[in-house]
Prior knowledge:
The structure holds three protein chains of three kinds.
Chain A lengths: L3 H12 L5 H10 L2 H18 L1 H4 L3 E3 L3 E3 L29 H37 L1 H16 L2 H12 L3 H28 L2 H8 L4 H38 L10 H8 L8 H28 L5
Antiparallel strand pairs in A: 1-2
Helix pairs in contact in A: 2-12, 3-5, 3-12, 5-6, 5-8, 5-10, 6-8, 7-8, 8-10, 9-10, 10-11, 10-12, 11-12
Chain B lengths: L1 H23 L3 E2 L27 E6 L14 H10 L4 E3 L5 E3 L2 E8 L2 E6 L13 H12 L5 H4 L2 E8 L2 E6 L6 H5 L9 H14 L7 E7 L3 E6 L20 E6 L3 H9 L5 E3 L3 H9 L3 E17 L9 H10 L2 H8 L5 E2 L21 H11 L5 E8 L3 H14 L4 E8 L1 H9 L5 E7 L5 H9 L16 H12 L3 H18 L2 E14 L2 E2 L15 E2 L1
Parallel strand pairs in B: 2-11, 2-12, 15-16, 15-17
Antiparallel strand pairs in B: 1-9, 3-4, 5-6, 6-8, 7-8, 9-10, 10-11, 12-18, 13-17, 13-18, 14-18, 19-20
Chain C lengths: L1 H28 L4 H6 L5 H11 L5 H13 L13 H36 L4 H15 L2 H15 L15 H27 L2 H8 L4 H31 L1 H6 L5 H11 L2 H29 L1 H7 L1
Amino acid sequence: MINMNNAVENRKEKTHKPRSQWFDAWRRFRKNPIALAGLLIVLILILTAIFADIISPAVYDPHLGIVPAYEFQDLGNRNASPSWEHPFGTDNFGRDIFDRVVHGSRISLLVGFVVVGISMVIGVSFGTIAGYYGGVTDSVIMRFTDIMLAIPNILLAISIAAALGAGLINVMIAVGIGSIPLFARQVRSSVLSVREQEFIEAARSIGASDVRIMTKHILPNCMAPIIVRATMGMATAILSAAALSFIGLGIEPPMPEWGSMLSEGRRFIRDYPQSTVFPGMAIALVVFGLNMLGDGLRDVLDPRLK
Amino acid sequence: MKKNLFLVVALLLTLSFLIGCGNQGGGTVTTEQGGGGQGQQEQGGQATTGGDSGETHLVVVQPMMPTNFDPVLQSEIPAARAIALIYQTLVYQDENMDFVPGLATEWYFEDAQTAVFTLREGVRFHNGNIMTADDVVFSLNRAGSSPHVSAITNFIHEAVALDDHTVRLTTVEPFAPMLAHLAHTATSIVNREEVERIGDDEHGQNPVGTGPFRFYNHVAGDRFELVRFDDFNSVIPGLAEGQLPAIEHLTFRIVPEAGVRTIELETGNAHVLVDVAATEVQRIRDHADLTMYEIPNFAVNTWLGFNVENAPFNDIRVRQAIAYAINIEQIVDVAWAGLGSIARGPLPTTVGGAIEFPIHPVNIERARELMAEAGYADGFSTNVWLNEGNAMRADAATMIQAQLRALNIETTINIYEWGVLLPGTAAGEHDMALMGWTTSTGEADYGLYPLFHSNNFGAAGNRFFYHNSRVDYLINLGRINTDHNVRMEAYREAQEIIMEEMPLIPLWQAVELHAAQNNIGGLNIDGAGVLSFWSVYFR
Amino acid sequence: MHKYILKRLLMMIPIILGVTFVIFFMTYITPGDPAVLTLGEAAPAEAVEALREEMGLNDPFLVRYFNYVINMVQGDLGNSFVTRRGVIDEILDRFPTTLMLAFYGTILSVIIGIPLGIISATKQYSIFDNAATAIGLLGVSIPNFWLGLMLILLFSLNLGWLPPSGLDTPAAWILPVITLGTGSAALVMRITRSSMLEVVRQDYIRTARAKGQKESIIIWKHALRNAMIPVVTAVGLDFGFLLGGAVLTESIYALPGIGRFMVESITRRDFPIIQGGVLFLAITFSFVNLFVDVLYAYIDPRIKSQYK
């Protein structure tokens, strides 16, 4: 005799799509407090960046017209401590630090996305090609990544930034180039393990082209580590960009990039620490959130921990 | 098997640890110099310039390490300060800007291009050799042909020894500022035998001079040390003849971070701090045990310069408009924390012949009128270049950027490292540049010729690409004509024309900022930024 | 095994050559003339030309590169443009400082990271675990230049316990090592934790438990040994990484190490130092990698058999 409850449930289940591994992953994810905390922080970052103009609107100055919030200088109120009016205080030019941190989130987000975008696209392409074709192609590509990995990361970024010049775009390129080898390696080893499986053979035997096999069959099965790496990569990108700005190779004033805010505020650290404390906390928090998210994703997507 | 492995690993780690330890204290240690010069004091004189505390080891913290201790192989300020302790020049300039004897006791001018110097006799080098005309001739000719100090020394045509203690110096053209240039550390006297024996490069790391301190040791990137030259028998302003410095051992530690330098001073780890950052000044002023030294120097003038070959800055009305739009007083107050003073002309007021001009008034309406007249009522986009690592200039640029908005001018701030800034501005790639100039001779010529003469477009100093024939003529006159009044008049007119035509807007006149413990006495700082450690003592 | 090592050593050669080419190329395309830079703000044209000749900057790129490589294999890396001392001397003067800093930092990371990671793994999902993981992630997230400044402020100035810069006394090492080691400690902790977790799930652990072995013996005798394998390799790689990456720590604490020297040299366009320094670091890093890989192979019998 069929249990009526089960029958009802079974019918309900049957009308759903078969549960994918992603849905399983999401369920596990929900149970991991660290992952959730990370996701929350990242969401706050994204929302802050999107709504920065509303949170910290532009200001009208009779002399200068409309001035963005992060540029507005109030020279009568410099280096003020946190207050209701200025929750994070003001910097050496009387600019509201809260407004600058808020608008800085856009830059950080942009840096994170662009850097990861560049390195992911290039790195994954190279890694897939290397893993799939093997042989000489693999050797050559891997030697390139070895060369880049042999040079200490920060020095490579500094050299590239010095070669290209200062500025936001060049910083992103410099940091992005340094991240390519990691993606390439990761993807290559994933590809190596997937390549030998039967469904690839099957696809090949029905005449699918190499490109098709790589994009439609192999790559989707390697996505998990790529996603994890991308998340961690964003965190590293934001830190590296901040480090470059801190050294002075980064982003020009008056852009409120958090690393350059740290660099500018450094001289005041004893008397007016607000210029360094708040941007530093912002960096730490965002990077922390991204790392937690990445960690959670890894726990959840790693098949071995099932 | 595993046990062996762990043993190997442990061995390797210990090995590398020991190697690290062994090398750490070392660095480059120079063996003590000279056989004869050492040992017991002879006529060196007593070491009393005050000093009752008995303490003779002075520790100094400063931001940068001299890269080279040879007078003609570099042109940086940290090196110049050290060179002033190790070597000597033919003449010195005292507080009244008069020239007093150094290694030369007398001099006279044979004609407009020739000077003859009588040298002090029996002066000892650190390696025991006695200084003769041969060394002076060698040093001056060497200085004249070195690219590094060329801007200071290219007036030298030839030096010739007339006898063991007389030297004749001829210049390429009549050169009125000659003596000022001969007081500059670039023309310090070196020992020919030593330089020829060990070579230029080695001499840069193991210098030998006649100065009151001799080189002892340096640890790459971290510190260098000088010790008192006990056989010092020359003359130097600030030290009575026959006396030796009270300080026997000078340690210069390199600490790049400004706040940390102050902390070293506050904790008593250091006695003297060279180059106090603007943000630290008030703290030191307020500190009960520390003294601030704020000395106007004739070195650095900071300005906002225009590349007058680039439109729209070739139009004088645009330049004047900008001058009316920026608030110089406010900039100096905020960016330079009110330190130093507002620049009052193309030359720092401490330089002989400098004219003090009124501070340019702020007048936004007038500025807008001028812009409209020039056809730029809607403004334009431009850029300002400056060097990285100077937070105050960066602040000034930020303020200027904000102030220029009132004229609809969008300014991009380009902060470049020197490696890009210098060649880039030399090639005229900039619109505006926020830079400074070091008139290190204290002489009007060196403050005007490189910057404003049309001979010197680009890397030689004229980054405004300014060309005015009358100004060229006046500057040349000042160089050639030795009559003081003629020179002063020429310089006066030149400065007036320059301020009218405004290839630059002078912003800030620097001040030497150093600090020391209260119990440090006898520290004098001259306009070139040289600290007189030979006259320093512990109270 | 020996064949493997030999093969790796041979492969290092083209990689190192590749590194020199990349760096040489980058210095070539970097804007900024070292001659003008060295001469400063007053650089008359003839002086610039003379200096350029002296620095060998006027020859074409490939000629310069070729000369450089030929000199390099003979052991001559040239002289610094700035101090004119030999490149090798300048590097060797500073490398021991960085070596010791990285060494102590790694030791700190091991002392803190491994125990925390073990406890975290054995008490998985407990408050301790979550807290430790969170702290671990925080450790790698804090910008270490910021941490350095905060530490100086607190310990040197406010408390007066530790010297803020230089290396005169043993105490002077404390703050820099903490600043540098924090990130590594967090990394080691996380790797120890995940490695332990993986090992603890293995069948042979379950067997031991089923046989009634004491938990502490299981952890210490069986699980730990095998869990340490990936940890050792991670620590080794991290050490190599720290050698080149201590730039910011060295700058803030005024330590005369090679990282800070490299940044200064890049700023000053001191090409011989840049080329020699990166070469040196790349070789060192490659050797550390090789050492770690060989070590890994020795310790892990599964891998070792692959190389037999």
